[in-house]
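Could someone model adenosine-5'-triphosphate with this protein?
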Amino acid sequence: MKKTIFSGIQPSGNLHIGNYIGAIKQWVELQNFLTDSDLIFCIVDLHAITVKQDPKELRKKNREVAALFIAAGIDPKKSKIFIQSENPDHPYLGWILNCYTPFGQLERMTQFKDKSTRLRERSGEASKQDSVTAGLFDYPVLMAADILLYDTDEVPVGEDQKQHIELTRDIAEKFNNQYGEVFKLPAPRIIKETARIMSLQNPMSKMSKSDENPGGAINLLDSKDVVADKIKRAVTDSGSEIAYQADKPAISNLLAIYSRVTDTSIQDLEKKYQGVGYGVFKKELSEAVIEFLEKFQSRYNELMTEDGNLDTILDEGAEFTRSRSAKKVQQVKDAVGLGR
Ligand code: ATP
Ligand code: MG
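Reply:
Sure, complex below.
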């Protein structure tokens, strides 16, 4: 059956191995498996400006992320890649959906609670009022619009986005109850073992672009030495066994990373490292991650130097999505009674 798959990543901060394992790797697998489907991958710059961004840096990141997608295996012949702000239907539908989203439901979003708390802590008491914007609060509604514009069947994401997709379904259902079947209800697609790659410095919190602790995330563009150092300094658990289990969150996280960058099962890795100490395990993990990143980065560097190609890909992506979303927007306008 022909399906539509949609997902996005913010062009803020540095993309890390958690973004790759939790999201992009899944996209590539889906792309190569669902040959008859529409796959749409978005660089969500309108989401990125919910927190402060440097304009030059943001533009640079938009291109970088497009090249990172392709280096990771997204094939522009099979999937569409576009920049969110180049399709104005996203904020347009976002506004309309705002008017169908209960405020109280947005107040329950854990990502908003976490991010706003962190922002307030960082900016201190003095600027308490200013650091958290209405856009940050409203983030999940724009995300609902992103997804609903394309009659998306599945949204491949990491675990942290599950609540936002549930909200998307709620908004769509409520709208449909009032106006008939306008929106398709999307389902999250989350791979359990790797849906939540944790910080190397704190296995209780997820690896994040917005983490202030630079040792917590392995970035996709980190150099060999930086990666080796980060893995060396990664926290471990008490005991000495290499095992994937609840009381060993740090080692379990390292095993999950190891497993996904080498396409080896966690069980096989546990067997391989039976009776072996943390030191050797970390050294070999580090070699595996470096090997993976070296291949990845050489493809990335080529793409960044090829003139024009990236622009053609992004132009085609934007055009494809605009023609598709225009139909959905018209349907929504007709339902609500907007315009003439
Ligand atoms: P930020 O801290 O700015 O929110 P982020 O690291 O969470 O950045 P996003 O752009 O918000 O990155 O998310 C992009 C995709 O990566 C989403 O599908 C999200 O679920 C996934 N993702 C993010 N962090 C992780 C992680 N630690 N493990 C697995 N998947 C992740
Ligand atoms: Mg995030």
